[in-house]
Amino acid sequence: MAFLTEDERKHNTNKKLYDALMKQENTEVLRLCRGLESGPLHILTVHDDTVLHVAAYSKQTDLVLCLLKELEMRLPEFPVDGLKHRNDMGNTILHEIATFDRVDSAAKIILDREPDLLGMRNKSGETALFRAVRYGKTVMFDFLDQQVNQFFSVYEREACYYKLRGATILHAAVRSEHFGLALSIAKKYEYLVNERDADGMTALQLLACNRQAFGSGEKYGYIKRSIYTRKILEMLHSGILELHQVVV
Asked: Is residue 158 situated within a structural domain?
């Protein structure tokens, strides 16, 4: 009988784990994790994703919660900063969860244990809150924003609203065409309206110049243009915005 090398055993385990994750076989995933020294924090992919990362970016919210509860039961076995692990894109588990449509117990469990995750950036310079905005996840943004305000000082909070190269969460909302979220951000954080990105553009100037986004004579472009116009008028009426701010 041939004996497997350590690398072969690891490869076989990873294959079984990955297959179980893709088939959403939660019971099997948990069983396999219990046999691993690092459990749900086991590095599963060549991109340095843990089991938790893969479960999160494949939107298996129930499994993420089960894996976190498994971690809690085995907490003394793991390093204090285990949840701060980044994959090769620099994303933590919170960056992955930030793209969820809803806030569940998983995000709360993670932040109760590691609130510092709120300030960690990926290789694109994004905090988890910034990423939630880019994906248009309004409910998740509201939750993370609440957590940022709870755990961080004013200076630390404001840093979470900026990407490393100057763009703000308002720029991110506009670039991704999440107009309702952009309006909400502009109303809540008025100072972001005047902030400029690395190209010297405010978020609203960026949108005004994006003719491709509005289309030309197409029904879809007309709808988006109408939404944009309504949002701008609301902001002008409420005093958040002055007319010169939307003119390049």
From this structure: no
DSSP 30-66: HHHHHTSTTGGG-B-STT--BHHHHHHHTT-HHHHHH
Give the integer Cα–Cα distance in Å for 140 and 131. 10
Is residue 162 scored above 80 in pLDDT? yes
- First-to-last C-alpha distance (Å) of the chain: 74
Q: Which helix (H) or strand (E) segment is 82 a member of?
A: none
Q: Report d(CA 20, CA 28) in Å as an integer.
A: 6
Tens-digit pLDDT profile for residues 74-116: 766 666 678 999 999 999 999 999 999 887 788 888 998 899 9
Q: How many residues does the chain have?
A: 248
State both tokens at 236. Answer: 């002008």
Rounded CA separation 127/115 (Å): 12
Domain containing 207 equals 165-248
CA–CA separation, 16 vs 34, rounded Å? 13
Boundary (domain end) residue, out of 152, 174, 208: 152
The sign of the CA dihedral 204, 208, 209, 214 is: positive
Number of domains in the chain: 2
Tens digit of each residue's pLDDT (9 = 90 or more) over 169-226 = 999 998 898 888 988 998 899 899 889 999 998 888 887 776 545 555 444 454 455 5
